[in-house]
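Hi again,

Forgot to attach this to my earlier email, sorry! This is the prediction with glycyl-adenosine-5'-phosphate bound. I've pasted everything inline since the attachment limit keeps bouncing my files.
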Amino acid sequence: MPATTLDQLVSLCKRRGFVFPSSEIYGGLQGVFDWGPLGVELKNNIIASWWRANVYERDDMEGLDAAILMNRLTWRYSGHEETFNDPLVDCRDCKSRWRADHIKGRCPNCGSTNLTEPRPFNMMFKTAVGPVADADSFAYLRPETAQGIFVNFGNVLATSSRKLPFGIAQVGKAFRNEINPRNFLFRVREFEQMEIEYFVMPGTEDEWHQRWLDDRLAWWESIGIPRERIRMYDVPPDELAHYSKRTFDLMYNYPTLGYEEVEGIASRTDYDLGSHSRDQETLNLTARTNPNRDSTARLTYYDPESKRHVVPFVIEPSAGVGRCFLAVLAEAYDEQMVKAPPAERIGAVTDALDAFLKSVGRSEKLAPETRDALLERGQAIREGLPETMPQIETLLAMPGADQIELGKKLRGQAQGLIDEYFRTVLHLKPHLAPVRVAVFPLKRNHEGLVAMARDLRRTIQTGSSFRTVYDDTGAIGRLYRRQDEIGTPYCVTVDFQSLEDGTVTVRDRDTMQQVRIPASEVRAYVGG
Ligand code: GAP
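Structure tokens for the complex follow:
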């Protein structure tokens, strides 16, 4: 079963080092996160899968990696200086600030309805380029990667001799000064986007919009997100971005959050190339653009058939890497009871949980919303026992739980049981798993086993594009559990028989079944 709460994922990411709060030792920075050793592997694999599907496996795409800093005029003519705003309100009572469209007229901090009128807040981060901070050195950190593609349209066209339709793909950082970053990786201030700008002949954009919708849904399925877990939202005209004629938002059913946008597929007309072009009056643009007196280029395409210069229309599939990462984790996440614990030990945990919840209910140290959140989660776990036992770890990691003395007793009762009878497993697609293969010696103090296991790890790793690790830091059962929790599809054990006949066991993460095969065949067995 996929994750049911966002906290399960936050807890896993913290426990296993997928994601860390940025600059944590100084108290962190709101809405900014760092990728840990496993997070960076999973993230890179997601990006590689996207790049493979959208650049290598198609014959109509080129790649690009444009700079984050761009001439300020880019953002004037893209429309972002004027329109990249969110509605900001202040709570007059507690002085907190909120995005008006996220709070339904009531301050989430103190409950007051004494709010200011919404006013536009531009979300672009500002900086200065060079030693003197003045009007000439002023620059923005890009809020989307897309504009780097549009301003390079002429360069790519001239150097790649592409014909329409063709696209340019880019993956890179984007920055938005979100008023209220929240929900872990979902809404942050620094994130990565995977964007495609696909250029088509005017008049063919609707057909291509539909084709990209189908292609993108197929990719989401290929990374483990079933079609039925994504809803397509046809964005109504009054919600469309300033450049869009029509947008399909792909909404993933996130735990705790429900259906939220993971990717937008916009039909951007000739707005962007038109906006960044000079001599606009000669280009027969359909989009309304601001007059451009600064650009040195006409971003047009010479159509050999009609012998005319045309401004291509654009289809833009744009996905956030962090939101994709969260969706992949949520979908892959599973807590399984491997065998049923003895009834009396379940009873002891139930009693400890009851006592903990009673103490939470009586606590005067906890703020009401913290207490209610703990009680709500605790009751849900209580009702689902024993299957929900692993969620006790997440409960005890929730804000306020550390202030309840009986939490220690609950942890003491539950931990051993969780370790012995349950496993958390990430059913990640093998091509996304941070580690594809883990190799263990049956005994870590046996020279022959260790040497063979280390050797095998090196052999599997050499020349492969996935990660293979060696581990001997625990008993085999514990090592399996650790690899299950990070989604490693294959665990290879070198045992005494291996020393005699050169075979090893390969355990499958999902079925927990083992096969014995020659060590020399492991590389082929685990795939390319
Ligand atoms: N170039 C079009 C564009 O930027 P967008 O809908 O604003 O469109 C595209 O952003 C994707 O970027 C979103 O679908 C989402 O996945 C991701 N994204 C946007 N803002 C984000 C934020 N503050 N934190 C994390 N991801 C974000």
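The mean pLDDT is 95. Residues 37-56 form the longest helix (20 residues).

That should be everything now.

G.
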